[in-house]
Amino acid sequence: MERLEQIAGAIFDLDGTLLDSMWVWQEVDRRFLARRGIAVPDDYMAAVNALEFSAAARYTIDRFALDETPQHLMDEWMELSRQAYAAEVALKPHAGDYLRTLARRGVPLGVATSAAPELFIPALRRCGVYGLFAAFTTTREVGRGKQFPDVYLETAKKLGLPASRCAVFEDTLLGIRGAKRGGFLTVGILEPCSAHEADDIRREADITAASFAELLPQPV
Fold first, then answer.
1. Which pLDDT band holds residue 27 (cuts at 50, 70, 90)?
2. What is the CA radius of gyration of the chain?
3. What is the pLDDT of residues 117-134, one digit of tens each?
4. Can you give the pLDDT at residue 1?
């Protein structure tokens, strides 16, 4: 943890790292199908998770013989997810305390995420931490996913810092590897949805923690 005390900037993933939001899309599917009197089949989530958004919509229409367009499904899914992020998604335990601790130390904070701003901004505002961040970057903005360092490098650039002076906080092995490729100190936040990667995250991240409570300064 000593290396974390020396960082000049901190860059955070959102879903599964700062935000307790990994349940949202499963719940969106449940709510969407419930409106149509359909229970979620056991194999449905695995099937749609492997598909791009529009392909998932077409799969859903074909599977349940829905008389709807893919765009209608995608619009409804997005509206359900917006409602969940705006009203229900919370911070992970002790995440707010850790963000405020860094802010009090004068460490600028950034966000590097695959999530859409219309989802995460209302959640961060409602949780009272939006104003703590000096920079936001999405993978759509940089054009490549988190297996590449682009989203982290762009966020560090916005913070006015080199990668070598920043830590990246991620909950997936993909994100840890992408950030390491960019030369960042990497902090793996262990998340139940990434449990199948936990051993690899522990091995490859510079630091790992099961909770932000482990990263907070301990009383002397």
1. very high
2. 18
3. 999 999 999 999 999 999
4. 58
